[in-house]
Amino acid sequence: MRKLLTSLVLGMFVGCAQPAGVLDDEQQTSPLEQILNDAQVENRVLDKELDLNDPVDLRQRGNEYFAQGDFDQAISYYTASLAAKEDAKSYFNRAVVYMSKNDFDKALADYDMAVKLEPKEASPYINRGLLLHRMGKTAQGINDLTEAMKHDATDATIPLNRGLLYLSINLFDRALADFNQAVEKDGKYADAYVNRGYCKHRMKQYKEAVGDFAEAIKLAPLNVLAFSNRGNSHTQLKEYDKAIADLDEAIRLESRDPNLYNNRGSSYGAKGNHVAAAADFGRAIELAPDFASPYRNRAFANHALGQADKARSDFAAALKLEPEVREGIPAEYLPK
Predict the structure, then answer these.
(1) 167: domain CATH number?
(2) How many CB atoms lie within 10 A of CB 138?
(3) pTM of the model
(4) Residue 4 domain-assigned?
(5) Which of 18, 198, 180, 1 is closest to 92 using CA atoms?
């Protein structure tokens, strides 16, 4: 059975020099890509006429439809393949498509069957573990990833993913141990360094975090998160020029991410350059008008610049989006 591509959950820091290390599933590199790769290989076989009694042919046709983005047709062919012969691969593939449709209950049932049919194969445990996490059952997800490690002791993606699940429930020591394992298993695995650096940042080990992000950049010079997160760690170390340089590079690589402008604005603000800070917060607002943090941050910058009316307007916009976040806002800007 196929190897699973890494499911990365790389956190971004947002806010005025305060990390909001929330793990965001939307930042995952999806395991769905793995079937796409299989389909590209197997399409050569599909030049011949489809044998409706051959479960492999049917599964391969499902892969082809998956590659085209036709999920319903893919499911129908995986289902036909299973009717011809039960097979863990077809259950696995169909589960992946169900996940892409956010039909988690059906995906879980198919992963259960894949595990039942091939209990010593790591991939179904990995995918099921990540699915359980997405369903809010993180402890069960961790158990599945632990089981996967028993069946594949060499794959660095497994401890990395388990580390991410530990990180999501703030078990930093366990997360760090898993990221260490990932690095030990594959010393050229840039994402392992990025995630370990992120974990160290959350643990306030900022210098060590900078080192890990630097290693990731050596291995993957176009890794936006390595630059942006190293910049955030430099900000925590009050190394503002280095922070701004890293965030400049991150923005060069990904110019439409509002978090990057918000973070660079925070570095400018911490350095005392409130004009540049306000400009960056403004760009973040242009890119994400419903993002409260840059309104709040620009309000502080305008307050520092003595522009009370602009500050009041931005604080009002931030409070409209996040009425519960009032800490630090000067009393004169709070609604009466």
Answers:
(1) 1.25.40.10
(2) 17
(3) 0.85
(4) no
(5) 1
